[in-house]
Structures are given as C-alpha cells and as structure tokens.
Amino acid sequence: MLSERRLEVLRAIVQxxxxxxxxxxxxxxxxxHSLGVSPATVRNDMAVLEEEGYIHQPHTxxxxxxxxxxxxxxxxxxxxVKPLSTAERRAIQNFLGSAVDLDDVVARTVRLLAQLxxxxxxxxxxxxxxxxxxxxxxxALAPARIMLVLITDTGRVEQRLVDCPAPVGETVLADLRARxxxxxxxxxxxxxxxxxxxxxxxxxxxxxxxxxLVLATLLETLVEETEERVMLGGTANLTRFNHDxxxxxxxxLEALEEQMVLLKLLGEAKDSGMGMTVxxxxxxxxxxxxxxxxxxxGYGSGDEAVAKLGVVGPTRMDYPGTMxxxxxxxxxxxxxxxxx
Length: 340
Known about the structure:
This protein is α+β, with helices and mostly antiparallel strands. It has helices at residues 4-20, 26-32, 39-51, 68-78, 86-97, 102-117, 170-184, 193-196, 208-223, 250-256, 259-267, 319-339; strands spanning 55-56, 65-66, 120-124, 133-142, 145-152, 157-163, 230-233, 276-280, 292-299, 307-314. The protein has a five-stranded antiparallel beta sheet with strand order 7-3-10-9-8, with helices on both faces. It has a three-stranded antiparallel beta sheet with strand order 4-5-6. Strands 1-2 form a two-stranded antiparallel ribbon. Strand 5 and strand 6 form a beta hairpin. It is elongated and about 90 Å long. The relative contact order is 0.13.
C-alpha cells in the first residue's frame, strides 16, 4: 500500500503530465504543488513509485510519466469526476433537446461528446434486445404487400416489407393491428413470442397464412443479431495526440474502423448497467488500442441501460473531465429517450 503522501505525488505527476505533455521532475512538482516536503523527499517517493511500476522514465531526462498501472490507481482512488459548469449543462440540454428523432439524437450525441472531450466519441444505438414495444403499425402498400413498422420505447423505428400470398383486406389488417398491439405493447422483446403464437388461429382460415407471415416477420425483427449499431465521431481529434502513440496512430485508426471492435469496446461494460467503466492501455482487448483509454457508461430511459456511449483517447487523458462529460451526456440522452 502506498502512503497518502506518495499517492499525492502520483496524483501531481498525472495532473502535470496530462496538462504539460512533458515528463515530470521532482523540482517541478515541488514548485507547482503544495506537497509539504523537500525535493529530495519527492525524489525518494518518485523512486518508490517507479519501483512499484506506477511511473517510468521514458528516456534519459530527469522526468517521469505515469504507466497504465499509475493511471489505473489515479482513476480508482485519486480522481473525482469533474462536474460540468451550468453553461455546459445548459448547452448540452439545448443541443440534444432539439433533436427530431433517434438518428438525430445519436448523431448529435456523437458530435457533442467529441467536442466536449476532444476525443473520439462512440455511441451505440439503443439495443432492440433491451427494449420494449411501444407500437406496431401495419400499413397496406398494395393489396398483398404490407409494411410492418416496429417502434420501441427508446424511439427506435424498424421497418420491414411483408409480401403476402394473397390480398389482405383493410378490415383484417385493422383487426390484426389491434390484437397485436393489445398483446405486445409495453412488453420486453424476449417476452413477445409466446404472446402471439396462437394469434393466427383466431382469424379465418383464408387469412391465416398472411397473419402468420406478418408475425414471423415481427419475430425475426425482434431477434435479429445484426441490429447492433454504433456511430463514431471525432476521429480527427486523434491527430492532436500523435506523440502519445509510441509507434504510429495507424493501429488505433484501423481498430476504430471495425464495427465489431467498437461494439465490444462498449459491450464489455454491459454487466455494469448504468455504471461507468474506464479501461486503460493494455486492459483493452484489442492490440491496436493498447495505447488508448476507453471511458464508457450506460444510458437509458430508466434504471437499466439500453445501450452504451463513451470516448476513446490516449492514456494521457483528462480523466476527471472526460468522465464528467461522458456521464452528463449519458444522463441527458436518457432523459430525452424517457420523454420521447
């Protein structure tokens, strides 16, 4: 266990390195921070921190920089979440509040997160598997062609075309729409299949094939695995941190191009619900992201997360500010979904 003084020295090293981008020496620490001890004592504390693997010397200069282990301790024990100012909170509320639909909410959230944190923003669309049904609409496009529209509690809209074996009358369509909604509205997707399996039997024999086809299309929509989508923004922000990536920025950019990598980055945090997850450097599963940190949090219209959002940036990150921005944006997105 590190002493309180050495924890304070580590905190000061992280703060100075994040702020100045330069390795930190004992003389600078004693000048910038009220540590209450001599430079010699600070040098001794830095030697212990280096021996324990919390800081290291990048080259022959006297300065030290935090390691992944040092950042981990900083996040877990030393960093509070920096609250946003009233002006920042109002700006977030106004910017997100004027979104017109779910796609617009996600697009605005990505832009906002990238601007607030100056990192790469990643926002997952609300997952269908964690949603409930708000409404099912059936629209006749032609005598034997129906459009099925599924609307979720998060505002997500899925559309499917159904080509029926024979024309479907408006009376049958209205009847199916009413019976379907009476059974599935407000239900979680996983609970829907057993609620509708006997529905075709309540229709005339001639209408059952069309009814069965509509139900099959609905159930396919509910269980699709390809529905997980993410939106990415602010990739250009990484160019400001070229010197933070030991070899080249290319592996980071290549990893961020892969949809499944982004989903796993956010999805690994699914068990933590609405809680925040910070993964630092080599804690990230993808080798291309070993020089980055990921700050992610769940968002939703209630106590349960329907999706995740977060940012990816270099390990030399303003963790308190980034964590505060990510948490605040997630809270406002959740409010918008609840009100939509």
